[in-house]
């Protein structure tokens, strides 16, 4: 059996565990005496709870506790000003439909589920607002400045340009919906000692949040999250439902597990906020951009303000002397949004990259040529050189691969009577960061290397990439290296988010290996062995069973003199059915300019996953509310459409694979975000090329193509 699963350097180190079911996700831990929580959620959108009748529920079989604001255990941080923005079970106030208002705990999941249906809640309903677009249009509606306005050169310079494009682009709410549902198991071992099994993108961040909330030392909290079934940003914070579970376990002195339902995934763990964006673009007749104006509105909640970098890319992606941006958020009576893959930039890129395409057609110019013509030499917003940027090479490689020469400039002129064919291109960009991380390494005389760091892996294959970095530097085969993660007691590392893990933790692994090698050389000299002697022999000669080093690593100070970004170019071919308006993405070529590629297989998977997410964003994904009730009406996989296999064509990925000289010793920049950013615009641009119909409102559903 084992032979079937021999791994080579290109495989995922945890692939076998994942496909055979050995990998354990948080909800699979069976603790002695485990109890089960089920949430009761608000059926109104705004107002106050006037009564909770939990008598029948309390008397139901197996029920151990019903927590609500009426009998809440004390949470130290909740008694302080500030702290958590939504203090769960703290007051009678309702901020959004589906807000958790009580937690029923029973000895089985089924009994808790049944009892939760018996809890009767009365409310005093208030007038609410969940309508984003109406609020953007309403000059009286509250709008908060989401980011300071930015201006370079002349404001609204596009208005005096030879050729002008001025359009509005909208995206709906999208929800993350990873395969794994959100939740936690909480288990208080003593009054000041807590263990949790969590779904989190950051075990240290969960540990710190729980320490601050319950006012116990962080080192008394053990957070386990070895495997995570997808996150996309939704598990970058500790949600109120997790605090509720920890409260329940504290009160009951028993472990409590809470796994929310798929429906609840739409309401209480964030989403990509809806956005309304206006772009003004001006160019000379020769196709040189003279001005870009970008005003964006995003959505937030009334109880907490969420902002993201929607207008970031507009400031530097093109060589324009004049740029001005503004970004506002509109508070609504809904759950607070959170980062979702390519946060901010994926939203902004849909607008900017659609407008760039529109301008190319207005100039009767190939959109690829227009982009190349306006490619900047440096980052004009930060006034810094790029650490590395190979975008022109990426344009050329992708164009060749997709067959860009088959594209026709005249929209609607390619294809037969039933299926029209179109080609589109778009750029994605995201900050390539590097934070501070520590890794511990233990090198053994048996030839094995153990690496440990408190990072999470939500799926990209962190353990695989880290193992490869160590394997190549140490000359140790991958199967002799183990990378342990997802455990808060390991050396600290940041949360997995913002495409920075490979850069951050990988650098620490790199530096650790350099330190280990140095120590081996010193140990070899001590016993008069040659510097290139194998480390196992060096350790044996020194009578050492193992050597152990913990290495911390952080960004090079020189990095702040550069604009450091990862870039992607997405090429898409679509077929659009003339009579039905159905869009099929028929070919995808995504090119990543993200420095040196460490792990080809997982890098490719990142790009493929981003393209699949991009197809969803472009064509199907949209969380819809009924504003009469403030409720989602498609909060399930039957009605909220994500791409299935039949929607996904052959996806080719190309990597420029040139090391960035600045970011880190590997020269590797992140790519999780750029895999998605820009993709939806490439589809919209291809649809225009196929049909002459410009759809500026995602998702691009058949009705929008057919409408006159
Ligand atoms: Mo992501 S939005 O960096 O988890």
Task: Please characterize this protein's 3D structure.
The protein contains 16 helices and 25 strands. A 7-stranded mixed beta sheet has the order 3-5-1-12-9-10-11, sandwiched between helices. Strands 7-15-14-13-8 form a 5-stranded mixed beta sheet. Strands 16-21-22-25 form a 4-stranded mixed beta sheet, sandwiched between helices. The protein has 708 residues and is of the alpha+beta class. The protein folds into 3 domains: 31-126 and 177-268, Aldehyde Oxidoreductase, domain 3, CATH 3.90.1170; 271-433 and 563-706, Aldehyde oxidase/xanthine dehydrogenase, molybdopterin binding domain (Aldehyde Oxidoreductase, domain 4, 2-Layer Sandwich), CATH 3.30.365.10; 435-555, Aldehyde Oxidoreductase, domain 4 (2-Layer Sandwich), CATH 3.30.365. The N and C termini lie far apart (60 Å). Mean pLDDT is 96; it is low at 1-5. The structure holds dioxothiomolybdenum(VI) ion. Residues 201, 231-233, 236, 339-341, 343, 497-498 line the site of dioxothiomolybdenum(VI) ion.
């Amino acid at each position: 059996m084992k032979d079937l699963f021999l791994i080579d350097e290109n495989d995922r180190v945890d692939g076998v565990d994942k496909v055979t079911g050995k990998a354990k996700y948080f909800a699979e831990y069976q603790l002695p005496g485990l109890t089960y929580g089920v949430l009761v959620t608000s059926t109104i959108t705004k107002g106050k709870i006037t009564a909770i009748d939990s008598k029948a529920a309390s008397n139901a079989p197996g029920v151990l506790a019903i927590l609500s604001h009426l009998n809440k255990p004390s949470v130290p941080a909740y008694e302080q000003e500030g702290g958590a923005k939504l203090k769960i079970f703290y007051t009678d106030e309702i901020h959004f439909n589906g807000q958790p208002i009580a937690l029923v705990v029973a000895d089985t999941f089924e009994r808790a589920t049944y009892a939760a249906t018996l809890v009767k809640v009365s409310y005093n309903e208030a007038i609410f607002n969940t309508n984003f677009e109406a609020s953007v249009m309403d000059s009286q509606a509250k709008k908060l400045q989401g980011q300071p306005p930015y201006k370079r050169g002349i404001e609204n310079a596009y208005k005096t340009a030879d050729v002008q494009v001025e359009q509005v682009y909208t995206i709906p709410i999208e929800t993350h919906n990873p395969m794994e549902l959100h939740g936690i198991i909480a288990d208080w071992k003593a009054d000041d000692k807590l263990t949790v099994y969590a779904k989190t993108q950051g075990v240290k961040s969960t540990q710190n949040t729980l320490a601050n909330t319950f006012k116990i030392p962080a080192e008394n909290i053990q957070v386990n999250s070895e495997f995570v079934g997808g996150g996309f940003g939704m598990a970058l914070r500790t949600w109120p439902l997790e605090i509720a579970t920890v409260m329940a376990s504290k009160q009951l002195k028993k472990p409590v597990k809470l796994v929310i339902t798929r429906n609840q995934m739409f309401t209480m763990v964030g989403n990509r906020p809806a956005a309304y964006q206006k772009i003004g673009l001006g160019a000379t007749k020769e196709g040189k951009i003279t001005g870009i104006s970008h005003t964006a509105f995003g959505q937030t909640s009334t109880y907490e303000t969420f902002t993201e970098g929607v207008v970031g890319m507009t400031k530097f992606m093109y060589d324009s002397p004049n740029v001005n941006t503004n970004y506002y958020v509109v508070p609504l009576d809904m759950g607070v949004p959170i980062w979702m893959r390519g946060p901010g930039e994926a939203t902004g890129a849909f607008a900017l990259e659609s407008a760039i395409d529109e301008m190319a057609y207005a100039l009767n110019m190939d959109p690829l040529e227009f982009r190349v013509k306006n490619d900047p030499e440096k980052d004009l917003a930060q006034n810094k050189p790029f650490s590395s940027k190979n975008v022109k090479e990426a344009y050329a490689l992708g164009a060749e691969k997709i067959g860009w020469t088959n594209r026709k400039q005249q929209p609607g002129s390619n294809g037969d009577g039933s299926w029209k064919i179109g080609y589109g291109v778009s750029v994605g960009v995201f900050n390539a960061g590097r934070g501070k991380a520590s890794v511990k390494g233990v090198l053994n005389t048996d030839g094995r290397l153990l690496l440990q760091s408190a990072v999470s892996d939500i799926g990209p294959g962190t353990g695989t990439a880290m193992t490869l970095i160590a394997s190549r530097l140490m000359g140790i085969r991958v199967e002799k290296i183990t990378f342990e993660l997802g455990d808060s007691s390991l050396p600290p590392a940041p949360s997995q988010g913002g495409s920075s893990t490979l850069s951050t933790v990988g650098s620490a692994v790199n530096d650790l290996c350099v330190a280990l090698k140095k120590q081996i050389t010193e140990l070899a000299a001590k016993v008069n062995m040659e510097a290139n002697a194998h480390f196992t022999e060096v350790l044996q000669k020194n009578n050492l069973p193992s050597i152990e080093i913990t290495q911390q690593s952080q960004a090079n100070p020189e990095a702040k003199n550069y604009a450091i970004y990862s870039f992607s170019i997405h090429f898409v071919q679509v077929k659009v059915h003339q009579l039905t308006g159905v869009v099929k993405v028929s070919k995808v070529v995504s090119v990543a300019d993200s420095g040196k590629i460490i792990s080809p297989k997982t890098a490719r998977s990142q790009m493929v996953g981003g393209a699949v997410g991009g197809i969803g964003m472009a064509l199907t994904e949209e969380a819809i509310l009924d504003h009469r009730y403030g409720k989602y009406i498609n909060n399930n996989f039957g009605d909220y459409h994500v791409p299935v296999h039949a929607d996904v064509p052959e996806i080719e990925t190309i990597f420029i694979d040139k090391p960035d000289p600045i970011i880190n010793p590997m020269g590797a920049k992140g790519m999780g975000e750029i895999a998605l950013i820009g993709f939806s615009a490439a589809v919209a641009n291809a649809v225009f090329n196929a049909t002459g119909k410009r759809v500026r409102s995602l998702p691009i559903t058949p009705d929008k193509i057919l409408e006159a």
